[in-house]
């Protein structure tokens, strides 16, 4: 399996190199040259098997021998055995006759990011160890990626990790999950800007080749194909539990950077019979507007009660545009340059039609999500977080037919206690192992939204230069 860039002008790489590369050198994102497929009998055989077993079946199609099967199996087992607080790893919960929640928050930092990050850290460590190399990881977070990455990479000898988060725009729990980890290889940067600014700086560091090569940069955001590959697994696990491949299943995904729902699209490309893929946005609804008008247009991010979805530059949308444009890399390059220059681009007609044939979309206001949280608590006895709540609000417009709907519950409600309490009257408690989180000492550095300042900070701290 080889990987090509969405912009067509970067080296073609194998899986191990793609996992270390993060962003492609032409500014694009790596995707498999062709989609691996699983036939119906193979998908049916997943029924009743453990999460690590299914993960190996799916992920090995993307690794394609680049890492020995025995090593890959061992890393998958270690990632998903004993690290998640539920034996099923990603259990399903029924909230209505035809509506299920896929709980993705049973990992160490209580968000779906743990599912991929627990494996990605092991994969990167393995590849670096094999090469006797070190890397400097830079990542941007709107709240959850950062904590999951720090937890997965803390204390590792081969990597230093620098996480940029928007100062004052993540919840206290999210911030403390990052800033209270005091291992020497962990560096938290409270950026004076938005998540889009943070992501822009990360991409700026990757596109500054002298810096990128000197620091041996790697990325752990969903620009990294390893993240997407690991997230594909739970679509298979959930759909098979509900009767696939004999029965179609729909998914609604709370969306920001488009990585999670793109993983669903990949599962469909691989042969999983997915009926609808529904994009759920909050008030930052650039993707819902794009699905309506064909025009991707930034209007400015507004803080909401679901801060992890407060995103306008939705990185992985580029992977979908690449597919929808018939893998025409020059067109993707032109559209992305237009976005950088003017803050907007118009999808070509055929690409717009292709996207609308695969996806639906909707938005959830802060008020609608608060009402939903209250209703779900009183009617179903279920306390959902604001991000999953956005998903359910949007999903309910698509339920009622013969196809079951699965909404991704992407975070534990205790990550957003104030918003969940304001909506439901109940303050969700952190699990016992995080009981003293609010008392632990914090360490972070506040930096301006300035590439040179961030690069200087990374250069001063990175052990790769020692
Ligand atoms: C809790 C939560 N839900 C949903 C999302 C959106 O996921 P994605 O960025 O993959 O679209 C995020 C951030 O990524 C998140 O942290
Ligand atoms: N919501 C995310 C934003 C980054 O997304 P990623 O999946 O590209 O890492 C976060 O919580 O940080």
Automatic annotation (TrEMBL):
It comes from the Bacteria. Residues 90-328 form the Tryptophan synthase beta chain-like PALP domain. Keywords: Amino-acid biosynthesis, Lyase, Pyridoxal phosphate, Threonine biosynthesis. Its EC number is 4.2.3.1. One of its GO terms (molecular function) is pyridoxal phosphate binding. Its cofactor is pyridoxal 5'-phosphate. The keyword Coiled coil does not apply. InterPro entries: Ser/Thr_deHydtase_PyrdxlP-BS (IPR000634), Thr_synth_N (IPR029144), Thr_synth_N_sf (IPR037158), Thr_synthase-like (IPR004450), Threonine_Synthase (IPR051166), TrpB-like_PALP (IPR001926), TrpB-like_PALP_sf (IPR036052). GO terms for biological process: threonine biosynthetic process. Residues 2-80 form the Threonine synthase N-terminal domain. It catalyses: O-phospho-L-homoserine + H2O = L-threonine + phosphate. The modification N6-(pyridoxal phosphate)lysine is found at residue 113. Pathway: Amino-acid biosynthesis; L-threonine biosynthesis; L-threonine from L-aspartate: step 5/5. PANTHER family: THREONINE SYNTHASE FAMILY MEMBER, THREONINE SYNTHASE-LIKE 2. Belongs to the threonine synthase family. This is Threonine synthase. It comes from Pleomorphomonas carboxyditropha.
